[in-house]
Structure formats: structure tokens, C-alpha cells
Write a structure and sequence with these properties.
heterodimer; A: 105 residues; 3 strands; B: 201 residues; mainly alpha; 7 helices
């Protein structure tokens, strides 16, 4: 498939930050909670530590996720939460996918 | 994750998963079995049997938090879920207190005479088990926990047998408690097998 034949995600209205499968799984799991730590997300998504960390950094840079690091006793805990912008972006993404599938169905 | 067809189902599954470790079941089952056994074999101290579980419940919850959270992780649910949880737990607690008061009042004021002439009549020996079955039934509906229906059925069956046999009221509690412990243990083993502690970050 040449570059020209690649569907233009931007034209379709897809948010490329959220559209990536691993990030979509992470954002979806964060959407249904207020906040969750790394252990919870690893268990729910099956993603590796490196994957979660790199994707969360990308989401944080986009302003979609807030990351806080704390200690519980002597154990470090990294807590992730969707920002209001992240929630709005995910809701737009759902709407876009819904509209697209409705039109093509 | 393919079974989660929408966001609501995903949230529900995640919430259920956070309480699928069986620790609370094992504790409640052991407490029931202990109270039942005390009622049968330590009848003089039966009234005090409930104190031990009440004292241990805080330690159990703290131990569960340490053991389970290290594997399941920390999660703060959305406000609607937290409200739902608080509301349902309050309803269950109030229902439990009301049922307990009802049971005590029935014994004190109506009595359960062995000749079956009391208001409770032949139901007396199974009354506590029936009330607990009602509570389990309510919990099953309110907390959306189907295994509670099994517990309710076991308690009700035990209560019916105790009533029919005019047995000690502790008898239905002992086997029901053991059944609940076994259920909890199965859940706990499954939980430990399927939920490995990921590396901490």
C-alpha cells in the first residue's frame, strides 16, 4: 500500500494519540475509573512495564493523562488519571468511530 | 477483553474483578462456622461467639488490602460507582441490623417453644439461617454477586432442615459456613493463579 492509498486518519477525524491500540486500551481502562496505578493497569491490559511507561509518557505529553508518583510505605506507586482534556478526547474518539461505523453499515 | 462489548461492561467487569479474591468469603464463612460450632458445643458462651469475628474484621480487611492490592493494584472508582457502593452497603447494613433485631425480638417476645406453640412455631431453630439467607439474597441482588444466591440457598436449606428436625440453631450455620469457606478458598486459589504480582513501578 503506497502512502497515497493509506486512509487519512486526520481527515476521518481520528485522534492519532488515542487511535494506537495499546494507548486505546490504556485510555479506555482509565476512562472507567478516576485513577489507577501501574499494577492495576498492567493487570487489566496485559501490557508490559515498558509499554505502559512509554505510552503513558506520550499521553501525558498530549495533556491526556496526569501522572503522579507516591510511596506506599517503601514501595513506589505511579498513579495515572485521565485529565479533562483526555476524557473529552476519548469521548470524541468514540463518537468518531461510532459515526464512521454507522455510515459504513 | 473481547467479552467487554461496551464501556459499561468493562467497568462492571473491572469492579467485579476487584472483589473476586474470595478473602471476604473465607472470613465470613469461617465466622459463621465458628458461631454455629460455638452454639452447638459451647452453648453457655454462644452469645459471645460473634465477638471474635467482630474483633478480627479490621485485621482481615487490612490484611486483604495488603495482599490483594499488591496484585490487583490501586484503583479509585468513578463517583457514580462509589455512590452505588456506599448506598448498597448502607442498605445491606441496615437490613442486617433490622433482621438481627427482628430475630432477637422474635426469640425474646414470641419464643420458640419446643412444643411448637410459640409464634415462631417450628421455624425457630432455622430462623437465624433464614434471616441470613435473606441477607445473602439481598447482597446478591444489590452487589450484583451471583455466588450470594448459592450461599442464600445453602443457608435456607440448612434452616429448613434444622426447623424440620427441631435441631440446635447452630447446625445450619456450621455447614453453610464451611460451604462459604470452600467457595472463598476456590476463588482465592484461582485469584492467586491468575493474578501474578507485576513488577512495581
Amino acid at each position: 500500500m503506497t502512502r497515497q492509498e493509506t486512509p487519512d486518519l486526520d481527515a476521518l477525524g481520528f485522534d492519532r494519540i488515542i487511535h494506537e491500540p495499546a494507548r486505546l486500551v490504556l485510555v479506555t481502562n482509565l476512562y472507567v475509573v478516576d485513577e489507577a496505578d501501574f499494577v492495576y493497569l498492567a493487570g487489566r491490559t496485559g501490557l508490559t512495564a515498558g509499554n505502559i511507561s512509554s505510552h503513558m509518557t506520550r499521553l501525558e505529553n498530549a495533556g491526556y493523562v496526569a501522572i503522579s508518583k507516591t510511596f506506599v510505605g517503601k514501595r513506589p506507586r505511579t498513579v495515572y488519571a485521565l485529565t479533562p482534556a483526555g476524557r473529552a478526547a476519548f469521548e470524541r474518539y468514540r463518537q468518531t468511530v461510532g459515526d464512521l461505523l454507522a455510515e459504513s453499515g | 477483553m473481547t467479552e467487554h462489548r461496551n464501556i459499561e461492561a468493562l467497568e462492571k467487569a473491572a469492579y467485579r474483578h476487584s472483589y473476586s479474591d474470595g478473602v471476604v468469603d473465607m472470613f465470613v464463612g469461617a465466622s459463621l462456622a465458628w458461631i454455629g460450632a460455638a452454639w452447638i458445643w459451647l452453648s453457655d458462651l454462644a452469645g459471645l461467639a460473634g465477638i471474635l469475628p467482630a474483633v478480627l474484621v479490621t485485621a482481615m480487611l487490612e490484611g486483604r488490602k495488603r495482599l490483594i492490592e499488591s496484585r490487583v493494584g490501586y484503583v479509585k472508582w468513578r463517583q457514580p460507582r462509589r455512590h452505588w457502593e456506599l448506598r448498597n452497603l448502607t442498605v445491606v447494613l441496615l437490613a442486617g441490623v433490622a433482621l438481627f433485631a427482628l430475630g432477637v425480638a422474635a426469640f425474646v417476645f414470641a419464643g420458640s417453644r419446643s412444643d411448637g406453640t410459640g409464634v415462631l412455631g417450628p421455624l425457630g431453630p432455622g430462623l437465624l439461617a433464614f434471616l441470613l439467607a435473606l441477607l445473602a439474597l439481598g447482597l446478591g441482588f444489590l452487589m450484583d454477586t451471583p455466588r450470594m444466591f448459592v450461599y442464600a440457598a445453602v443457608l435456607a436449606a440448612g434452616g429448613a432442615i434444622a426447623a424440620a428436625a427441631d435441631a440446635n440453631p447452630g447446625w445450619p450455620l456450621l455447614p453453610a459456613g464451611i460451604v462459604i469457606v470452600v467457595f472463598g478458598a476456590i476463588l482465592f486459589v484461582r485469584f492467586l493463579r491468575t493474578t501474578k504480582a507485576p513488577e512495581s513501578r
